[in-house]
Design brief:
Blueprint: H1 2-21, E1 30-34, H2 40-48, E2 53-56, H3 59-68, E3 75-78, H4 87-93, E4 96-100, H5 103-112, E5 120-126, H6 142-149, E6 155-162, H7 170-187, E7 194-196, H8 203-208, E8 213-216, H9 218-221
Parallel strand pairs: 1-2, 1-8, 2-3, 3-4, 4-5, 5-6, 6-7
Helix pairs in contact: 4-5
Length: 229
């Protein structure tokens, strides 16, 4: 527990330092703890130290954790690829979905969101580096899809999510985030207030270019053991 507490403190400090360095409002960047492949005990531990937002990539694993942690006031984010047959569970059991990459998926989430729940917060995933191996729409597809998704009931279109190709150079890390931020700004839709950008390796670069949610897993929970899945 002490190690996790120390890591949380260090990451929060790094976020605060980046906010200060790049003239961001203190507290404007949310830490999303990416807990995929990690046990419910690790989530409960982070919760004890004030972490409330957790991101999951794998639906069945996430549903199991949600059941085990039902007593905790956790805000659940889904950040993995979306298959059509999973949308009903996503619409029912999550507060945020970051990885919407088609009108078909958005419509299904809208239709399947239970009426007694608040609007489902969603982000459109943009494949900002045009990588064939990654999900997401192109920059050119962003404006028309935003216009259509924003009209759907039961959803609240919040902004965009992206996972650029890894770069070691700081300025190269910043570049795709700057391009995406500017593209969203050109849409002229102030309700798009969320930029789910930045992970362990490029957290500071993302905050420098407008990120409002950083998705941190390895730096918080340690390396993942996928053989246990």
């Amino acid at each position: 527990m002490a190690t996790l507490a120390q890591r949380l403190k260090q990451i929060r400090s790094q976020i605060n330092d980046a906010e200060l360095a790049y003239n961001r409002q203190p507290g404007s960047v949310l830490l999303l703890a990416v807990s995929k492949t990690k046990p419910s005990e690790a989530i409960a531990c982070a919760y004890q130290f004030g972490q409330r937002h957790f991101g999951e990539n794998y639906l069945q694993e996430a549903l199991k954790k949600q059941q085990e942690l039902g007593a905790y006031a956790i805000t659940w984010h889904f950040i993995g690829p979306i298959q059509s047959n999973k949308t009903k569970a996503l619409a029912t059991h999550f507060d945020w979905v970051h990885s919407v990459d088609s009108l078909k998926i958005a419509r299904r989430l809208s239709e399947q969101r239970p009426s007694h729940l608040p609007l489902l917060n969603i982000c459109l995933q943009v494949n900002i580096s045009d990588e064939p191996s990654k999900s997401g729409i192109t920059l050119a597809e962003l404006p028309p899809l935003c216009e259509l998704v924003a009209k759907l009931p039961n959803l609240k279109l919040r902004g965009v999510m992206a996972i650029p190709a890894p770069q070691q150079d700081f300025e190269q890390q910043r570049r795709p985030y700057k391009i995406l931020y500017q593209a969203v700004a050109k849409l002229g839709q102030p309700e798009l207030d969320t930029f789910s950008l930045g992970m362990t390796g490029d957290l500071t670069a993302a905050i420098a270019e407008g990120s409002t949610i950083v998705r941190i897993g390895t730096a918080l929970f340690g390396e993942r053991d996928y053989s246990q899945m």
